Fold:
Amino acid sequence: MRYKAPRGTQDILPSKVERWQRLETAARRVMERYGYREIRTPDFEEEDLFLRTVGEETDIVAKEMYSFTDRKGRRLALRPEGTAPVIRSYIENAMWKERRLQKLYYLGPMFRYDRPQKGRYRQFHQIGAEAVGSLSPLVDAEVIAMMVAVLREAGIRRLVLKLNSLGDTTSRASYIKALVKYFRGHEERLCGDCRLRLKKNPMRILDCKVPSCNELAAGIPAMEEYLSQEAREHYDQVQHWLRVLGVSFEKDKNLVRGLDYYTRTAFEVHHGELGATVALGGGGRYDGLVAECGGPDTPGIGFSLGTERVLLAIEQDKALRIKFEEDKYVRKAGYYIAWLGDIALKEAFSLAGFIRKKVRVEMEFEEGSLKSRLRQADRLRLSHAIILGENELKEEKFLVRELSTGNQEKMELSHSEEMRNEMVKKLIPYYDAEKKYDKAMDDLSYRTISGALSEYDGS
Ligand code: AMP
Structure:
């Protein structure tokens, strides 16, 4: 074969896309319940936006950016993450004027030149949200709870939420001193990159993937001991309100996250089956980011979930896997038109156009036997077939067959608008009934999942 999808990218085929849509719909549903509105920013931005915000010393910027020069010599980059673009847009559109607290969410592709492996791609997707304009720890708790709610709505169990505070500027400075002191004592065990980081940005050592650095990082002093009074109170409040909202968490002193802009609250969510190194998502507070990008001094907090990772977690879950398997066999409301002969094809074509104003219709355009056509209708898991054969045509009628039972009924084939409207009206009750059935199935499986969830949560 001549062409392949570029390394680190994948096609999301129609057979898989349904899972994506379900997850995205669940995410939208939850976030809109929390009063968040969708924002769509470009897939590329000025490169400098990411250099300034994510940080030049981070892996994302130093090693993984898809940067390029356009025909006019502008330096651009495919976005490696979603927060900086949202903040850029927030400032460019003076969104604080509309409402003091802006609650925004996004879904879309991100690009990082990472080493491809399971759950790691060069083009991947994120579901994320940003709350810009409040310093209240209640907002931290709400954002985290919303992220967990998205995952729960998607049916995911066995979540582990990790929480840390990175402190404010004052606490950060004294903590960095302590970190440098600690790592200086063990400099010979640091990798080359980390020796540089020790000079430029010591906190980055904490998310180095080299095992010896990792081991060393396990022994670092806890940030919590260096928090300023204010930062400590904030951290305590976040924990308190998370408990109030019934969100369980573990404190993790090594959690720093791979971007420079985080302050105070940082969090990550993992899945029991995927292992500790693979996060489903995470986020944190970024109180200096808006000002850093040239906007007014405005605090903010956000999260992002990796869509591919969340789907991986769903695949690991037996109950969810079974549900998806079962779904494949559930019939979908719609008509498959099986026609025989040229005249019937013309009738079928015009009929399909008409019925489609209300109901899903499928048909082929090449000649085939009735048997093979009905088999195809069954493969598509459609609820009904319309049969337009020679006999039916002579009588100016067609047959509607319910595919699950084989029951069928004759109906008038007419060209008058009025009669056709009548016909569609007659067809719709079948369709509506099927739709209700689809919905009942959905509710049922959702109930089963939430039942399982409450057992797990003990709530
Ligand atoms: P980050 O912006 O690095 O905190 O990433 C947030 C989430 O996006 C991670 O927890 C992953 O779920 C996902 N993610 C990050 N990088 C990749 C990647 N290269 N491939 C797939 N998912 C990723």
Notes: Residues 444-459 have pLDDT under 50 and may be disordered.
